[in-house]
Design goal:
Layout lengths: L2 E7 L8 H11 L3 E5 L8 H5 L7 H14 L4 E4 L6 H18 L4 E6 L4 H9 L20 H4 L2 E4 L3 H8 L5 E4 L4 H11 L4 H11 L15 E5 L3 E6 L8 H8 L8 E4 L2 E4 L4 E4 L4 E4 L2 E4 L3 E20 L2 H5 L1 H14 L4 H5 L3 E8 L19 E9 L2 H17 L21 E16 L8 E6 L4 H4 L2
Parallel strand pairs: 1-2, 2-3, 3-6, 4-6
Antiparallel strand pairs: 1-7, 4-18, 5-14, 7-8, 8-12, 9-10, 10-13, 11-12, 14-16, 14-17, 15-16
Helix pairs in contact: 3-4, 7-8, 8-9, 12-14
């Protein structure tokens, strides 16, 4: 018995020669085409705001869906980056347009994973403990009021809801927020592949060609799973599956070198082996340690509004003391008559990042001197209202633009303002107020699954 999977990432545009990669995979044989399209890599903004980047996910999956429908291969996709209902609905609308344009009529299991705040609050009130995913974080176990304070909450569903959808005689499954490897685990586990092997293969395939050498998520990746392990192959001669590339990917997005917690258990790769084959790499030795079933919840809460300014500096004396210069501007905002009360009350937070010094690592930067001949300074003001954020950013900008500093030779021209308007209103600001583990007896309890025929009729569009 074997299960063969073609994997890719659907929020990244495919490589120009992707049709050749798909053709190669079909030659080897494909039992499912799977792609993840959700994630929290960019932080909580997309989840909280309800917006999403112009990812063109429906356009990105077009060559894969074409192959899936032509060869009667089920496809399994998560859609929408943050993966809440508003994101999934936009992607489904785009998928609907794609099907209409191409004359396709797939039957699709749609799985929603947004969590109702009232449901979660009621569970907490009834005594369910919802601890933070990382005990060392500043988060504490959820209280009943926390779900209502979040703009949206999603759960990283495991393979079980996907399996339930596949049982409905569908051509494919589209989900909202989902555990990446769970999408890849669903069909293999249904066909008798051990959980450990399905999870290990999912880890290798979850980011498409990123696990190859050279790594490129615009490329596809292929694997054949059996009861003892799986083989990974690149679908193009322009990249290769190597022992180093696959082992390196096992460390991706993981806090422990060999253990990865997942719904219902931990994937243990401490005894995993990676052996070259004529066409790829054979992977064996994964173990699965069962544990109580929990789902990771992500919830975003608005904490303010952002406004930014940008300045460029190349005056040598100023560069030598640039962090003291920016610290003084921050302190001027916090202690000014206009902003001091708001700052003390937490309604304003002002910070500066110096690109060329500490713009990337901030306080963790081990080097304390500007090493180049110029630096860029980003003023970041976060406040309770857009107007307050803009005022605070402008105040800091003026202190930097014309304010004094030791040994200044000129009263102007020490910093350049390359952008207009000087103050740029950026966005709402969100934080992950919920990053917790919800225990479940039934893995399907929080999901909403429906079967939809595409292109859909008006009554189904906003379901």
């Amino acid at each position: 018995m074997s299960v063969r999977i073609l994997g890719f990432v659907n929020h990244i545009a495919p490589a120009p020669d992707i049709s050749d990669e798909i053709a190669q995979a079909l030659e080897w044989g494909v039992d499912a085409i799977v792609a993840q399209g959700t994630g929290s890599d960019w932080g909580p903004y997309w989840l909280g705001s309800g917006e999403q980047p112009v990812a063109g996910q429906a356009r990105n999956v077009e060559p894969y869906v074409e192959a899936a429908l032509a060869h009667e291969i089920p496809f399994i996709f998560s859609f929408g980056i943050a993966g809440a209902n508003v994101h999934l609905d936009q992607c489904l609308a785009d998928f609907d347009d794609l099907c209409r344009r191409r004359g396709w009529s797939p039957r699709v299991g749609v799985v929603r994973s947004e969590v109702d705040a009232a449901y979660l609050a009621e569970a907490i009130d009834s005594g369910v403990s919802v601890p933070p995913a990382y005990p060392e974080s500043e988060l504490t176990p959820l209280q009943a009021e926390a779900p209502h304070a979040a703009s949206r909450i999603v759960a990283l569903i495991g393979p079980e809801p996907v399996q339930e959808a596949l049982r409905q005689d569908v051509d494919g499954v589209i989900t909202g927020r989902a555990l990446d490897i769970g999408l890849f685990m669903a069909l293999p586990m249904m066909r008798g592949i051990p959980t450990a092997i399905a999870a290990h293969a999912g880890k290798m395939l979850e980011c498409g060609g990123l696990a190859l050498e050279p790594g490129d998520s615009g490329r596809a990746i292929w694997a054949s799973l059996d009861e003892d392990g799986f083989e990974v192959r690149s679908c193009t001669p322009r990249a290769q599956a190597t022992v180093r590339s696959l082992v390196s990917h096992t460390f991706y997005e993981r806090s422990h070198p060999t253990l990865e917690p997942n719904p219902g258990g931990k994937l243990d790769l401490s005894e995993a082996t990676y052996t070259p084959t004529p066409l790829g790499i054979r992977c064996e030795g994964a173990q699965w340690h069962p544990a109580p079933y929990t789902l990771l919840l992500e919830g975003a809460r608005q904490v303010g509004h952002r406004a930014i300014c940008f300045l460029g500096v190349r005056e040598p004396e100023l560069l030598r003391q640039i962090r003291g210069w920016t610290d003084a501007a921050e302190e001027a905002v916090r202690t000014s008559a206009r902003f001091s009360e708001d700052a003390k009350a937490g309604r304003i937070a002002i910070s500066t990042r110096i690109y060329g010094l500490d713009g990337v690592l901030g306080s963790l930067e081990p080097h304390h001197e500007v090493t180049g001949h110029e630096a860029g300074v980003l003023v970041d003001a976060v406040a309770a209202t857009p107007e307050l954020a803009k005022e605070a950013a402008y105040y800091a900008f003026i202190r930097l633009f014309i304010g004094p500093y030791p040994d200044r030779k000129t009263t102007a021209g020490n910093a350049a303002a390359p952008l207009m308007p000087i103050v740029i209103p950026a966005s709402e600001v969100f934080e992950f107020s919920i990053y917790h583990l919800l225990p479940l007896e039934d893995p399907l309890a929080i999901t909403d699954m429906s079967v939809q025929e595409f292109p859909r009729g008006p009554a189904e569009v906003n379901r």
